[in-house]
Task: structure prediction
Amino acid sequence: MVQNATSKPTACLALADGTLFYGHGFGATGQTVAELCFNTAMTGYQEIMTDPSYAGQIVTFTFPHIGNVGVNPEDDETADPVAEGMVVKWDPTLPSNWRAAEELKDWLARRGRIAIGGVDTRRLTRAIRQQGAPHVALAHDPEGKFDIEALVAAARGFAGLEGMDLAKKVTCAQSYRWDEMRWAWPDGYSRQEAPAHKVVAVDYGAKRNILRCLASAGCDVTVLPATATAAEILAHSPDGVFLSNGPGDPAATGEYAVPMIREILGTTDLPVFGICLGHQMLALALGGQTVKMNHGHHGANHPVKDLETGKVEITSMNHGFAVDAQTLPDGVVETHRSLFDGSNCGIRMAERPVYSVQYHPEASPGPQDSFYLFERFAAAMAARKTAA
Ligand SMILES: NC(=O)CC[C@H](N)C(=O)O
Result:
């Protein structure tokens, strides 16, 4: 069935069940396979496309006007493109924004990423909800020649994200120091000009804005590759360890990360803070389990309840796996829960400053309700020093 194609289709999205969406290709030409998700954020398409947690996924944007503010060098969340491709309702218009340095289509082409416009994204989103993150193939051919059988077969051939360790693909090759701060810090939070705490951030696919938030909260951040051992981390004499977000299945990356986390927890009293994949792997290290969700959470308006204060935060989310709160052992407290579906959104050790959240307190894009978590980490490191 041809969807919304007002001129000759130059791109085709094939779902593994054989459903086809035709539209207008932009960005790179060629073909790619991935898991398909939808993101409901109204802003921040550039940050979303460069969030390393999207490796292996194509993003459907439910907000129809994508591309209208162009792209710029400052808003990348990582140096390389990460999401496999994008699906949008309207073909992008010329950008209108003083910060725009490039058009979305040229930026995608330069980065080898395929996009399709003119798609009925509401129908597609319903399919994603019903089927549960389908496997898809996306092709862009300016001649409009598609081998549909081969496309559907390619979608069916995609192995899926379960069991896939993608952190090794997107992590940094070598360790590096990070000292850039956020350019803005919300009211009510203090921005530290001089770093007070040495933090090792383990990079499973870290977003730059997380590192900026840590720096702004007073951390002197050293970033280490995903496969860093406990000994390599402790060689930096950190005051705290941060576990980053990242793509793929937490159980797969956990094969090497979980033993490292357990060793840090077992041999030190260091504060530990984790976000998203880091949250999931901390839960695994503490004895909990993770599950694949139906279609995940991807957006910038997800309400989360802090179970300890009763306060609700509006959060940015991007995850397809979740921690099963029922599997958390004694001594691990569920601290946050999604008000959309009741899924787990945060944990902490009862007696130690070891905690993590499923959502993205650094936003980028999204609301700034949850910055307090970075300050909490800094406060835990300060308290440990005072106690020593
Ligand atoms: N943003 C993230 O860190 C995502 C974590 C994990 N890859 C998931 O999909 O659930």
Q: What stands out?
A: Residues 11-157 form a domain with the Glucose Oxidase; domain 1 fold (CATH 3.50.30.20). The longest helix spans residues 250-267. The chain has two domains: 11-157, 167-387.
